[in-house]
């Protein structure tokens, strides 16, 4: 069982509340979403593993069980071309849960007309393989979001 923890502090809102049909319809995979606090912050690794994909607005960490976890910082933030995001790790790095991955400012994302809501997705998973999914309430970075068997 892999425990996936929150990469951000804020409010868990669930995928259905994400303002993007690809995420809200769980087309990328099951998971949840965080409406982050509106201050400069660092997104942290949700699991121990290897960074297999890294962009200013999104990253994937694969754990030792082969589970890939996507953290997508905001919606349509790829259109910001990295503006306001600072990478703190490199693709191929081994990271530990809670390690800082990307520094960003959700308030600046919102001011640029994009949603800072951040999906956390279990890639290539089924909804049935997740347990204890947190989809409401305040959450701190590092608190459990869901288990993955």
Q: Roughly how much helix do the residues carry, as a percent range?
A: under 10%
Q: What is the CATH homologous superfamily assignment?
A: Glucose Permease (Domain IIA)
- Per the CATH scheme, the topology name is Glucose Permease (Domain IIA)
What would you report as the Rg, rounded to the nearest angstrom? 14 Å
Q: What distance separates the N and C termini? A: 5 Å
Structural class based on helices, strands and sheet pairing = mainly beta
Count of discrete alpha- or pi-helical segments spanning 4 or more residues: 2
The low-pLDDT segments are none
Task: Indicate the mean pLDDT.
Answer: 97
* Annotated CATH architecture: Distorted Sandwich
Order of helices and strands: EEHEEEEEEEEHEEEE
Biggest sheet: strands side by side, in what order?
9-5-6-7-11-3-2-13
Strand fraction equals 35-45%
Q: How many structural domains?
A: 1
The CATH C-level name is Mainly Beta
How many β-strands, per DSSP?
A: 14
Question: Largest sheet, described in full?
Answer: 8 strands, antiparallel
Protein name: PTS glucose transporter subunit IIA
Main location: cytoplasm
Pfam family, one: PTS_EIIA_1
Domain PTS EIIA type-1: 20-124
């Amino acid at each position: 069982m892999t425990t996936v923890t929150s990469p951000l502090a804020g409010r868990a809102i669930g995928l259905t509340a994400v303002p993007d049909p690809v995420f809200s319809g769980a087309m990328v995979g099951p998971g949840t979403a965080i409406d982050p606090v509106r201050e400069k912050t660092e997104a942290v690794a949700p699991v121990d593993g290897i960074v297999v994909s890294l962009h200013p607005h999104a990253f994937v960490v694969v754990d030792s069980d082969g589970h890939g976890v996507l953290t997508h910082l905001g919606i349509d933030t790829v259109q910001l071309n990295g503006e306001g995001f600072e990478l703190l790790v490199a693709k191929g790095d081994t990271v530990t849960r809670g390690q800082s991955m990307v520094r960003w400012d959700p308030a600046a994302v919102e001011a640029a007309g994009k949603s800072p809501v951040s999906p956390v997705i279990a890639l290539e998973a089924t909804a049935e393989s997740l347990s204890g999914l947190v989809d409401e309430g305040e959450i701190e970075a590092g608190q459990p979001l869901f288990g993955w068997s």
